[in-house]
């Protein structure tokens, strides 16, 4: 009887105190047909699911387009999600055999007079039942797909006592669903993505870390592992600000396991400039206001404004390099966002390749080390959509920092800094 009580108590603690999460950064493969491509990747998924099971994972998340690869034309790859559809049956069996919650992304076909195609996430419970279907709302470079309903449910519950939010890739930059999901007191989010890392403000890990830090949620982010095509960077981000993250400049797949909450595995920065990781660039310097930083001053406080939006930077230089060029910048206005536009606010310290503003946000090796950095803005405290914006030479966020909407501050010495600032969306 005593043994039974202890077992029940430990199970109760697991239900109320946390879970073990898994994400897979996955490099998909192709075959001689759409069907065989999906089956080939599904077989690879099976391997990762079994590995996660042996390590006690409760939930595993795979990336966007992991089963199909990044295809422009959904025809042939999209499937009707009926209960007896072969892919649904196979995924259901994998979840049931591993007794694990399974989150996968695929292309969905809905047969109407004119067929519609959706970018869809499915969530299977431990018994292999589909408990959530979420269709991506904010599409990016997907002209042949239809957006999901703006008022669809974005949450699902589990038997380990956690209710998750769910959305996909570009959704993270929109209030709906990335902020509206939080109205349900959500503390954990699963996030399949195939992110196009874009300098200087939209690198994958920077966006993921910024969202988790600003919203105070645990984020399970699974990305494609194709750095040669700008895709890569996955992680499990905890509410306390620590993260178990992965990024590499070699096309590969990687399983990350993390107790939530729990201590994270310390990240190891590789001695490389990530030169084989391709990034895009979206930066029209003429739109921004700039001011150069004098690196010869050990301590300095300087501000910059764009109309009524202002930022103040407090910087302590521990070691300077006279060849480095750092500038602060500010912007408040409308920018292109794929086929639409967005109103953004940005203030940031940027590393520049030379004295020109066009060169800022450069992926080069700096010699300057900052002992302390902070930036504060004049926006209202607890505004709904402001994220920390940090990035180093290795395309990793500056994890040791604090953020409270109006101010971002580092907690330790920082080297190889490329971006340090605050990003906001006003629509």
Quick recap:
By secondary structure, the chain is of the alpha+beta class.
Question: Layout of SSEs?
Answer:
Elements: H1 2-17, E1 19-25, H2 34-54, E2 59-61, H3 86-98, E3 101-110, E4 116-124, E5 130-135, E6 155-157, E7 163-166, H4 175-178, E8 188-193, E9 198-199, H5 204-215, E10 218-223, E11 234-237, E12 243-246, E13 254-260, E14 280-281, E15 289-292, E16 299-306, E17 309-319, E18 325-337, E19 340-352, E20 369-377, E21 386-392, E22 401-403, E23 407-410, E24 414-415, E25 417-425
Helix pairs in contact: 2-3
Number of strands: 25
Query: Separation of termini?
Result: 58 Å
Overall SS class: alpha+beta
User: Sheet bearing the most strands, described?
Assistant: 6 strands, mixed
Number of helices: 5
Gross morphology is globular
What is the gyration radius calculated from CA atoms?
A: 22 Å
